[in-house]
Amino acid sequence: MKGALESLGWDPLLVSTPREITNASHLVLPGVGSFRTAMLRLKEAGLVEAIRGYAQTGRPLLGICLGMQILASWGAEGGGEEGLNLISGKVVALQTGPGIRIPHVGWNTVHLQSTHPLFDDTKNEVDYYFVHSFAFEAEKKNQVYSETEYGVRFSSAVGRENVFGVQFHPEKSQKNGLQILDNFCRWDGLC
Amino acid sequence: MKRCARCGLPETYETIQFDSYGVCNICRQHEYKKDKIDWSERKGMLDSLVQDYRGKNDYDCLIPFSGGKDSTYTLYYLVKEYKLKPLVVQFNHGFMRPNLLANNERTFKKLGVDVLSFTPNWKVVKRLMLESLIRKGDFCWHCHTGIFSYPMHVAIKYQIPLVFWGEPSSEYTAYYDYRENEIEKVDESRFNRFVNLGITAEDMKGMIQKDFDLDPRDLAPYTYPPIRDLKKLQYQSVCLGSFISWDTKRHFEVISKELGWQGDEVEGMPTGKYSYEKIECYMQGVRDYLKYLKRGYSRVTQMTALDIRNGRMERQEADQLVAQWEGKKPPSLRLFLEYLEMSEEEFNKIVQKLVVPPFKPDFQKIPSAGQTKDFDRWYREMKA
């Protein structure tokens, strides 16, 4: 993630304190792991309020993969836990089925539902790279910016004002993915 | 060989495909260029691009410049139409012809522009020519890569984000298809897609360092600069021909009239017919000859195909020109073999392995092409 942003000419910093988050111009929540553990760790470090406070200032926030899921109100993974509640919805397990193995790993198509500055200069109906077992169910349809099919149709990009989240990994998704990251770094948080 | 029913390009042409009418994709993308692309909208895009960068740095833009018709027209157009202050950057491949140098001087003085010229180490160039001849049957790797990477290093050094190339590659090939209706970005992907023949400078280092006294820095001019540096610069590297409809013959008329730009004869090309094409390099004859030996066609076919597409020639005349001019051995081959210290048998043996089927060259029956007037002024290695 850091390497991808650096290659695009930006200067990312890894941050771990509320103060650093308060000072950021753009904030990325990357993420691998489980919903509950992630939220508990953020709470321990006193970062939940810092991230919410940051989001309220209108500066751009991007959640990626688990970082996108914890934007939700609630997540089922690990026994259930409240999320950051920045975008209304819950995160539930993908279901296995014929030809559907969990986790969902690999390239899959992203169907854009409406335009957003982060998708500028990317192509519609192209593949991005996914690794996940749970998926975002957004409460409001107008906060779903893209959908992807894997057994079910789930929200692969969600957004509300200056907050945006993608289930896929833009940093691993070649040209279009890097374009999203570049767009994010140029974004003023307005839609 | 199978040929396009319309323009005559053969099946050995790179990126070619034929549709059910037997017409090639290059012809189809030209139809799209003529009928579907909204060139007034594109011109508007150019206006705003220029507006975004004008007056912000020491130069408004950087123009890589060979002195051929395309870069000359590009320079002329941007200076005259937009009154831009460009930095002109010339990568000297080592074989610039006297008429070209005279054209360049006239162009620079008439337009009033700053010019940087760079000539890479000749000993390194010769070793690179040998390696890319052996690997690809195309000895021009140093020129392909140097032309496209060196100016980008200069753009970074001088902090000039806007770089203008001339002709888009869609004019001749389908790596970037006009029908995609996108602006062709002259970036590292394009560089790796076809410019560098699939050989990076890093690859090249591994290929030649065993038998050549190489300083790794020798390959810097051929190495694409780090994408981070270019992104930091917020670079835009585009072809003028993505914004105005490219018309070589008309451009030739304009630069002749306005800049006194003069055409030249080229080995193996019909006299007087295409005097504006590829006049910048005295190894062009060898390049065209290699193309013929590998693929069974040469630049006569390419030029007549373009004329047919533009409605300027009938197929019959094209076939006659091709039959009369193509496949002749150029006098420059002798110089080339001297540079690389190679016999013609060795040369033929290398080429034989790289022929593109179904074409089969007959090395026994090859007539010679005539000398051009400036032949005696081309560089010869001193005999030891």
What order do the helices and strands come in, and which of them pair?
The complex is a heterodimer of chains A (about 190) and B (about 375).
Chain A lengths: L1 H6 L10 H6 L3 E3 L5 H10 L2 H10 L4 E4 L1 H4 L4 E2 L5 E2 L6 E5 L10 E9 L13 E7 L1 E5 L5 E7 L1 E9 L2 E4 L7 H13 L5
Parallel strand pairs in A: 1-2, 2-11, 3-5
Antiparallel strand pairs in A: 3-4, 5-8, 6-7, 6-9, 9-10, 10-11
Chain B lengths: L24 H11 L3 H15 L7 E4 L4 H14 L3 E6 L6 H14 L2 E5 L3 H15 L4 H18 L3 E4 L22 H8 L5 H8 L18 H6 L3 E4 L8 H12 L24 H12 L3 H11 L5 H11 L6 H9 L3 H9 L32
Parallel strand pairs in B: 1-2, 2-3, 4-5
- Which of globular, elongated, flat, extended, rod-shaped describes the shape of chain A? globular
Helix content of chain A: 25-40%
Termini separation of chain A: 24 Å
Strand content of chain B: 5-15%
The chain pair forming the largest interface, with residue counts per chain, is:
A-B, 7 and 9 residues
Number of continuous helical runs of chain A: 6
> What general outline of chain B do the C-alpha atoms trace?
globular
**What portion of the residues of chain A fall into strands of 2 or more residues?**
25-35%
**Helix-strand makeup class of chain A:** alpha/beta
Task: Note poorly predicted spans of chain B.
Answer: none
Order of helices and strands of chain B: HHEHEHEHHEHHHEHHHHHH
Count helical runs of chain B. Answer: 15
Q: In angstroms, what is the radius of gyration of chain B? A: 21 Å
Low-confidence stretches of chain A: none
Structure class of chain B? mainly alpha
How many beta-strand runs of chain A?
11
Mean pLDDT of chain A: 95
Distance between the termini of chain B: 45 Å
Average the pLDDT over all residues of chain B and give the rounded result. Answer: 96
